[in-house]
Amino acid sequence: MKYLFIDASENSTFAQTGNAAGFRSQVFATDRNFAARITNICDEMLQNADMTFADLDLLAVCTGPGSLTGLRVAAAFLRTAAMLANKPLVGISIFDWSLQTLIEKNISGQVRLVMPTLIDKAFSINADLPDLNHSQPELIERTTAGAQPDTYGIRFSYPGVTSLQPEPAALHNLINLKRHSPARSLPEILNVLPLYVIPSQAERKFKEAS
Amino acid sequence: MITLGIESSCDDTSVALVKDGIEVLASLVSSQIEIHRRFGGVVPEVASRKHLEAILPLLNEAMTAARCEFKDIDQIAVTAGPGLLGPLLIGLSTAKALAWQLKVPMIPVNHIEAHLTASFLAAGRKPEFPYLGLIVSGGNSNLVYVTGPRQFKCLAQTLDDAPGELFDKVARHLNLGYPGGPVIQKTGEGGDPKRYRLPRPMAGKGYVFSFSGLKTAVMRIVEQEGDRLNMADLCASLQQAVADSFAEKVEMALNETRARKLVMAGGVAANRPLREKMQQLADAHKAELLLPTIHLCTDNAAMIAAHGYFTADTAPANSLEVNAVASWEMGGPHNF
Q1: Which of B14, B67, B200, B304 is the most exposed place for a label (fewest CB within 10 A)?
Q2: Same domain flag for A65 and A143
Q3: Does B321 contact A36 at a Cβ distance shorter than 8 Å?
């Protein structure tokens, strides 16, 4: 199965192609130019993997948490490409990717994952490995991140928290696992949105006021 | 030649298909007004999210309405600026994916320039140069002399608020609702435009607009009049003051440039007193006034498609590398 994955949740863009023989990943220093470079990144990834877009069996997009603008640009681009070419699309959250990384490190049992978001805040989820299902993300104070044992910080170091970098090999295996349940129709594709959207300041103020 | 237009610079998601730059095959708009009304203005983060939800269903709907298939699209025109960055990026990224997949050119379009082309589109005509253009909207008030595709001489701009912004702020202050332009026009119907003496800011001071003083003047009248305030008269007086302010500068420009065509565009171009004033002015100067239909006054993708069609030659060769820009001068180069 041939795929193309884009993660624009950070300042740099992570892209990966894969097939039955393995995978190839690359990080692009896109900063704020991700939208300007997205077609070049896709072309370069496909060219390096000796694939064409037509060869792809599946598209995959990171659904966050992370930079809302980056996530949305990648989602808008890949959803349109998927719809147009009638290719399935899967959404990969960084939580799922990180849990898969832990599983491949032979870690089992109850774990907590935290990932920084707004200033002083972090998303937190709980899972019981090797089950990939996890609790709904909660917004917590960053200072409480290390309060529980077996807590892993995704791309994040903090006292009492073990730093965890989601790994490309785990992503490759996760995409292969998820290929059986991709979004295929337009309504399904529309559901592959950045899942971890933090309410805007205006929304939070409005909610408080009402 | 069929041009697909995509617009997402603020709170309207729009997709259109236009043939040869003058024939609208389909033009659909998904408005977020109801969502933003409760906040009293557009929240960029919310707008981006809603654009992402709306754009693909709207694209499919437009294709069906135009009885087109994706293979029929010859080129894609998309708003690249100016506007709200997050919302702009949704339209731009969608357009890039389409152009990349369909292997057709993508033309980045300046949204403000496209508003002027909307008036020609409304008349089913291609742009005819030179002309005098007045763009009046929530974020702009520009008076320009247009000599060719993407060739503008800026004559006047606002020092502070744009007219749409003024209407929004006054409407909010008077608890009339949002957006301000339509509610002020409705409230002012039948009102006496001479009842309240409002200033004509920058009158006699050359090519410059200013509207923040009008807002202050309105607030002062509200305070002074108290229970005696006649809302219809106040709204009518405000609209008259805005129309007179524009008319003075437009008349100067008509005399100076001897332009025989006057084009008014932008959301505030839907304002009836302003339209009437510009018609009187054009008649007095034996100039032709081109106005967009109400549908084409507000943000729409048909004008983006039409403007893209007529300015395709000016698009950069590597247009898929263009980024969205919050600020983009009319006629200015594409950012890289």
Answers
A1: B67
A2: no
A3: yes
